[in-house]
Design a protein that fits this description.
31% of the residues lie in helices and 29% in strands. By secondary structure, it is of the alpha+beta class. It has a single domain, classed as PPM-type phosphatase domain (Phosphatase 2c, domain 1). A hairpin with a 2-residue loop joins strand 6 and strand 7. Helix 2 packs across helix 3. 42% of the residues are buried.
Length: 277
């Protein structure tokens, strides 16, 4: 798959989290395995959790390795993604490692889950035959320039994977609501671009054309270019009103933490646009 696709990603702290002194609670991870697969995950930690940026980062990494283990067990036959147990097995692998991490920490298990391990998860898996988008929780998808928003959920309370480790009376979510949802299965030979992002990408899409992320070559040449662009969009601006003697500050355009991973089919010949604009 290295010969067919290239991948880039980045994340930035949201304006409101900066104002409140919070950390960036988003995270992402991706992996390209030769001619085998392309895997990418974005996670969004629960704002109410004290340190869910920790769980989001661990969760993204755990999900990638669990997905790789799933493929090692099941193979890369595209038919496997249609089998419910494939996704349930992936969920079990992730939860097993999250549970182990939580129980290894010094604290009461339920509190540890709430403080550290509540995060949404949105992923893509590109196999030779098919490309799949899957999630537990909210997020944003763009396939071949078609934007899809997952959520928002009632009362802005999405399901979190780690709720499966707690009693249903506490979470309010049924077991079926805490299983992976497959949103799209597309023949890979029809896929030109895929973008997955946390829910902050919806605000980004209103301020900035998302197609820039897959049309601009620099994002794939410089591993920090996506983050730098997001940081520039979210930079505070200062304007001085000389007549009134006032300094006016305007916050960035992204109120929530914003994270995206973009994948595009490699170009055959020709030079692309190299400007960040």
């Amino acid at each position: 798959m290295n010969e067919l696709f290239e991948i880039a990603g980045g994340t930035v702290l949201g304006r409101e989290h900066l104002r409140l002194g919070k950390n960036n609670q988003d995270a992402f991870a991706f992996k390209v395995v030769d001619d085998y697969a392309v895997m990418a995950i974005v996670c969004d930690g629960c704002s109410a959790g004290a340190h869910t940026e920790v769980g989001a980062k661990l969760g993204a990494s755990i999900a990638i390795e669990s997905l790789f283990s799933n493929l090692a067990e099941w193979g890369i036959d595209g038919e496997n993604v249609y089998v419910r147990f494939f996704w349930d097995r992936l969920r079990e692998r992730i939860l097993s490692r999250v549970s182990y991490a939580a129980r290894s920490m010094n604290g009461e298990f339920k509190r540890t889950i709430g403080d550290y391990f509540l995060f949404t998860m949105l992923g893509t898996l590109i196999l030779p035959e098919v490309t799949v988008i899957f999630s537990i929780g909210d997020g944003v998808i763009d396939i071949n320039g078609r934007l899809i928003e997952i959520g928002p959920f009632p009362n802005n309370q999405p399901p979190y994977l780690s709720y499966s480790l707690l009693d249903q009376s506490i979470t309010g979510f049924s077991p079926d609501e805490l299983r992976f949802t497959v949103h799209s299965v597309t023949p890979t030979d029809e896929v030109q671009t895929v973008l997955i992002g946390t829910d902050g990408v919806m605000d980004l899409s209103r301020a900035f054309p998302l197609n820039q992320f897959w049309e601009n070559d620099l994002y794939f040449k410089n591993p920090d270019a996506v983050r730098r662009r997001l940081a520039l969009i979210n930079k505070e601006s200062v304007k001085i009103d000389w007549e009134k003697g006032e300094v006016n500050r305007e916050g960035g355009l992204l109120p929530d933490d914003t994270t995206l991973v973009v994948i595009r089919r490699k170009k055959i010949g020709g030079e692309g646009n190299g400007d960040i604009c």
